[in-house]
Specification:
Helix 1 runs parallel beside helix 4. The N and C termini lie far apart (49 Å). The protein is mostly helical. It is globular and about 45 Å long. Helix content is 64%, strand content 0%.
């Protein structure tokens, strides 16, 4: 008999301690996304993005809905200069320490008119992250993690 529980992958909210907290956090994130998506493009770019850039890593992760909203709002923009500026910002977000922010930026770049240069930048970053992850895993291969001291007899 299947269990009817939602499966959430890659959730990186530090304050979630129970399933109810998880659902509340996800609802808050979706509500923020809907509110931001309704803002005019100029307000998003001139006010909200600079605020986002000034936040700490934890606060940025809580405000990641802005990345989604900017991607959606500017995907329909008819201003090529503005689209290029937004795409450059998204490419910069590919270096963010938060995986969730990197994933949202990755999803937004093609909607903003992905080109060969941005695709190459994305592939380079993915290769670098994969090498970093493999190095980290291989470095600890065969070791007990964490190392425990044997009791004296």
């Amino acid at each position: 008999m299947p269990i009817n529980k939602p499966f959430v992958r890659f959730l990186s909210l530090d304050f979630v301690s129970s399933p109810l907290d998880l659902l509340t956090a996800m609802k808050a994130d979706n509500d923020l996304y809907r509110q931001l998506r309704e803002l005019p493009a100029a307000q998003l770019w001139n006010e909200e993005v600079p605020k986002f850039n000034q936040l700490s890593a934890k606060e940025r992760n809580q405000q990641v809905a802005l990345v989604r909203a900017v991607g959606v709002v500017f995907s329909t923009s008819r201003n090529p200069e503005m689209k290029a500026a937004v795409k450059a910002w998204m490419i910069g977000l590919l270096q963010d320490p938060s995986e969730k922010i990197r994933r949202y930026a990755t999803a937004a770049i093609p909607k903003l008119g992905g080109d060969e240069a941005s695709e190459q930048k994305l592939l380079d970053i993915l290769r670098w992250r994969n090498r970093e992850r493999n190095w980290s895993m291989n470095r600890n291969y065969g070791r007990a993690w964490p190392a425990k001291k044997m009791p004296d007899r």
